[in-house]
Amino acid sequence: MKTQKGTFRKLFEVLGRQKLIFAVSITLAALNVALTLYIPVLIGDAIDCIIGKGNVDFDAIITIIIKAGVTIGLAAISQWLMSICNNKMTFTLVHDLRSKAFKKVQKLPLSYIDTHPYGDVVSRVISDVDTLSDGLLMGFTQLFTGVATVLGTVVLMFSINWKIALIVVVLTPASLLVAKFISDRTYSMFKKQSETRGEQTAFIDETVGNQKVIEAFCHGDEATEKFTEINERLRKYSLRAIFFSSMVNPSTRIINAIIYALVCLVGALTVISDPLFTVGALSVLLSYASQYAKPFNEISGVITELAAAKASADRVFDFLEQAEEISDENNTEMPTAEGNVKMDNISFSYTPEKPLIDGITLNFESGQQIAIVGPTGCGKTTLINLLMRFYDVTDGKISVDGYDIKDVTRHSLRENYGMVLQETWLKSGTIRENITMGNPDATDEEIIAAARSTHAHSFIKRLPQGYDTVIGEDGGNLSEGQKQLLCITRVMLCLPPMLILDEATSSIDVKTEMHIQHAFARLMKGRTSFVVAHRLSTIKHSDVILVMRDGNIIEHGNHKELLKAKGFYYELYNSQFAN
Question: Which residue among 320, 342, 362 closes a domain?
Fold first, then answer.
């Protein structure tokens, strides 16, 4: 219960900036209820005007009909305006939550993104927020009017006949207790439903994104089997949640029907025994008894929807409350770097119990080309992550031109790097938009010059609209080599003072790679460059070669020095070029 209160408290905090609309909605709800409760009084008066043979007061009935018409019209208008307010509140809340969630993605540390399925994050931002909005919309629409109707009918029923009113007031809340009993047991099912839906979205995202690999390794049956298992669990949780929640309305209706029958019986006996209690008054009481019971049915439905909304809200707020990257808004803005990089006794591990990098001290001068080689999993890419501050060192410090990178803003640090990874990333848009991502003000001449230097211009011109060709997410139908050429062109256009090339030409044919290496040589001249490579032929002319194994730098020097030392680098080199 404490957790639920906390979740709804957070929701009302998000709604805080809509206090005026919230107040207007409640006012309209009260007005709508007052008008709705006045209609049975008019009908009761009309009934009393026609009781008795030859005792029909047509003038009074016409007056009542006019009043009823005006009252119904005003009630309809207030209901319409209230719906507008409720929709605005709900969808503004959805807009705010989704905006916060998307901004949260930009602020989360890379460690969170690396350890959580992308599909689950998408499910929280899309599906769970949708479920939350559906529950809140029903809550705003029916909860306020329901509570106001209950309070209004109680007062009016006691003013007409307190004995009959007492029967209604004492017995009707039983339906709410039944609804509460059932909803408490459906919450866990709705929660499991939301979690499993997120798991399913993550699996579908993973499968669709890697369909070629699945088909290449004939893994389709296994993937289908796993999806079937997840889908079956989702079906089971969904059916249980819907089954138990669907019991709420029939249960409460049975109780309310019994109460209505009791009011009819006691009311009829009272009309016979009490001359002051008219048939019109009985009709008003019956109408109020029905209206008093109806909100309990609606509120029970709201409780069921809110149980689903609560389960989704928990997941949304759990995501929004994840620890963000340490803020650097008060840090120094780093100027354009010369490229002097120093690592002073740095250590790092992804998990405390498994050390990776331990006590590395290195000093690189501006303009040097530093190659990083070693077997898979030795820490090459981790070292790049630390240079870019995707992760922070756990001990020691890394400095650029004397600035501790923890003391400068990440934005200004990363502006000084140009980065090309083995994994390409292209967004939906034109070829031009993808190339100019780091330099949106580049001219056509500069874009073409950069593309020519990477030998991407020729294949771009063969595309249907050239540089204005629209490609889909992650490059669409472009080959891996073409996508990598576009990523290299993107860096060529930026001309940053420092470069990071992590297997930047792994998907490119040897002939094109030779041309790109010449372009890289021109680009890297005078720029500090960090090159991660498995093909040692591409880094023979590097100023410094760092040889890593198990997170440690076991050798460093230039190509000739390392071959002469006949150590681990010598073994790596000979394994590639022994023949």
Answer: 320
Task: Please state the separation of Cα 51 from the chain's center in Å.
Answer: 63
The enclosing domain of 145 has a CATH number of: 1.20.1560.10
The CA distances from residue 204 to 83, 182, 201, 277, in Å, are 37, 33, 5, 67
Does some domain include residue 386?
A: no
**Of 320, 344, 371, which residue is a domain's last?**
320
* Residue 508 pLDDT > 70: no
**CA distance to 79, 106, 425, 504, per residue, from 500 (Å):** 62, 22, 15, 9
561 in a structural domain = no
Q: How confident is the model at residue 1 (pLDDT cuts 50, 70, 90)?
A: very low
Residue type, 394: T
What is the three-class DSSP state of 434? helix
Which range has highest mean pLDDT (293-307, 447-461, 537-551, 564-578)?
Answer: 447-461
Residues in the chain, how many?
579
483/487 Cα distance (integer angstroms)? 6
**Does residue 3 have a pLDDT over 60?**
no
Q: Which alpha helices (DSSP H) does 339-429 contain, by range?
A: 380-387, 410-415
Provide the domain count of the chain.
2
Question: Who wins on pLDDT, 211 or 371?
Answer: 371
- Asked whether residue 43 is domain-assigned, the answer is no
Q: Are residues 434 and 287 in the same domain?
A: no
CA geometry: angle 298, 300, 303, nearest 5 deg: 110
Q: What is the CATH number of the domain that holds 435?
A: 3.40.50.300
Tell me, what DSSP letter sits at residue 536? G
- Give the Cα separation of 567 and 558 in Å (integer): 13
Looking at residue 129, its pLDDT comes to 84
Between 82 and 52, residue with greater pLDDT? 82
Q: Predicted confidence band at 2 (pLDDT cuts at 50, 70, 90)?
A: very low
Identify the H or E element spanning 55. none
pLDDT in tens, 222-238: 888 888 999 998 888 88
Dump strand ranges (E) for 323-435.
Answer: 341-348, 357-364, 369-373, 395-400, 403-404, 417-420, 429-430
Question: What pLDDT was estimated at residue 512?
Answer: 66
Residue 380 within any structural domain of the chain? no
Classify residue 273 as exposed, middle or buried by CB count within 10 Å of its CB (0-12, 13-18, 19+): exposed
> Taking Cα atoms as reference points, which of 529, 545, 520, 542 lies closest to residue 497?
529
Residue 300: per-residue pLDDT = 63
Instruction: Round to whole Å and give the CA distance between 521 and 523.
Output: 5
Contact in structure between 539 and 355 (CB atoms under 8 Å): no
- Counting residues of the chain whose pLDDT is more than 70, the rounded percentage is 92
Residue 430 has which token pair? 């034109």
Quote the domain boundaries for residue 481: 425-495
Q: What mean pLDDT is predicted for residues 258-277?
A: 79
